[in-house]
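> call design_seq(struct)
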């Protein structure tokens, strides 16, 4: 009887030992899997591409200013202008309006200088012309239309905008959508310009074409 008891106890202890070892192995494996997965998740998170200024698709090189802008959507949503992660004009800021919306930025520092909009449907073009003439050399000029930006434009206003580097301003018509980034004293044609004609056969909205968007990197003005 004693021998049987010893055998039973020995088997029990052996079984307990085996079970405990298997349990530890499984626990180690599970913990290892958890830690490995956490490490992979952390690595994936760390490799997520950083957000660029103004949300543009590619970071700008040194001595360049990031910008992104969009024209208005019909006569419902106003335009938006962002430079160096600073939203200069938008419907949320409540500083946009019908016509041509303009943001001025210091070409050396990237700091905002002024924002204004000029009603080119029911307003007067004269204040817009005076504003264009007052822009200082070296200033970055960003423009976007909302609703209608062309009806009151005359030859003098178009010429002044063309001198900022625009090529589409001569063809800007009633309710066209247009965004432009140029500069006072640029002396060349700007590569930053988008223009969509108002055409009843192709308009996205009734009476207005689709929104035009544009992003890029503006070279810093050098002395």
């Amino acid at each position: 009887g004693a021998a049987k008891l010893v055998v039973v106890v020995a088997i029990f202890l052996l079984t307990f030992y085996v079970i405990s070892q298997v349990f530890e192995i499984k626990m180690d494996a599970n913990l290892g899997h958890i830690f490995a997965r956490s490490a992979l998740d952390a690595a994936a998170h760390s490799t997520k591409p950083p957000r660029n200024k103004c949300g543009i698709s590619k970071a700008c090189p040194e001595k360049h200013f990031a910008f992104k802008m969009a024209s208005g959507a019909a006569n419902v949503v106003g335009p938006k202008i962002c430079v160096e992660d600073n939203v200069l004009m938008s419907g949320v800021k409540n500083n946009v309006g019908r016509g041509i919306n303009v943001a001025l930025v210091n070409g050396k520092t990237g700091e905002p200088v002024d924002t204004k909009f000029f009603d080119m449907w029911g307003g007067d073009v004269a204040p817009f012309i005076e504003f264009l003439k007052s822009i200082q050399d070296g200033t970055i000029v960003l423009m976007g239309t909302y609703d209608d930006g062309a009806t009151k434009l005359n030859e003098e206003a178009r010429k002044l905008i063309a001198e900022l580097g625009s090529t589409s301003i001569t063809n800007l018509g009633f309710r066209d959508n247009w965004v432009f980034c140029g500069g006072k004293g640029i002396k060349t044609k700007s590569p930053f310009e988008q223009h969509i004609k108002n055409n009843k056969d192709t308009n996205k909205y009734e009476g207005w074409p689709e929104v035009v968007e544009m992003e890029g990197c503006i070279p810093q003005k050098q002395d």
